[in-house]
Amino acid sequence: MAATRKRTAGKNLKPVPPRRGPTPRGVEAKPSLPARGRRKRAGDAGGGELDAVAYASAFVRDVKDFPKPGIVFKDITPLLADPRAFQGIIDTFAQRFVGERIDAVLAIESRGFIFGAPLAARLNAAFVPVRKAGKLPYATDRVSYALEYGTAEVEVHTDALRRGARVIIVDDLMATGGTAAAARELAKRQGAQVVAFAFVIELEFLGGRKLLEPTPLVSLIKF
Amino acid sequence: MAATRKRTAGKNLKPVPPRRGPTPRGVEAKPSLPARGRRKRAGDAGGGELDAVAYASAFVRDVKDFPKPGIVFKDITPLLADPRAFQGIIDTFAQRFVGERIDAVLAIESRGFIFGAPLAARLNAAFVPVRKAGKLPYATDRVSYALEYGTAEVEVHTDALRRGARVIIVDDLMATGGTAAAARELAKRQGAQVVAFAFVIELEFLGGRKLLEPTPLVSLIKF
What we know:
Two copies of one chain form a homodimer. Chain A has 223 residues and is of the alpha/beta class.
């Protein structure tokens, strides 16, 4: 994924993201180069797409011991604070799904809303919120899924999707895949066709991808 | 606001929103007219802007007794489900703020994310989430505000904004204005300049606008 990963100091980003491994191709990152001075190199493998994701990936910040001791949290707020990084992610998803006649973007509360809403707008699709139990005001359908300890529930309005609607399910991060699988179940119960999952970040070592088979899955930044 | 309010049956919208008062100008709404068949009339006062908001306003659904008995909740999910309505709101905000050098869009969890994120993308601005206490992983600043009973708190990351940044604060709905005022306080503590508040819906009868003076305030749909 990170064949051209660089670390570039964005104007709005104060904390420089920590290095996560050596710089590829032996090219040393130049933290003093302002983002606006950076140019896309013609001939990059994958064109602008890979480049946008590689650029954005440097803005994911590790926060240790959140939400509890021993967990390293992938903080996307520095990525959101850099307009080029944020829009690079949206653009990449849009390029993947434009022309696939996506009727609706199901986004999972609440960080999923941050990527799902601009993507729905870009695709001229409906935006459908999937929320934790008790948050949606109208008649809802509900699915439970397993957590490390106990269970949680997500809901969608019963009139959210029409039969045969082509939908994608969006979230910021896939860990075990439990929430996303529950969202898929909710969509299927309304007769919708889940075209794909779209995640900004995939925690590959947790193996959540398995749970979401055979639905196609797009993830941009992998750890 | 609703000088040209119409009720148009969107393709993706199954429940027709309830009428809230007489149709202006004596023009009877035509629920059977498909959205795609609707044309903007040349010469409408206010051009496309007013028209877009009037169109979107018909998709706000009243849900009685949510979240508790006696409350009428303004449900925006039918609006989000109609791509034209949703994008009409984003477009209208964008037209208001483009060219004002907005550096960042502060959006209030979690429905504020749904409008704030596409708007940030449209304005080429940073997206900064304001969240309930305990949700943001990195170092945070926190402001309390009064609720009907007791208090609540919102947080922002301490490195979210640079001094002098021009920001707008976005939420789906303004009721008493307490959360928005707290978000403004968070922004000011980081030295940012709050250019305006932007709300999709304003509940005028609650008088929240007073609390937010003298910051300019844009609200599109008023009840």
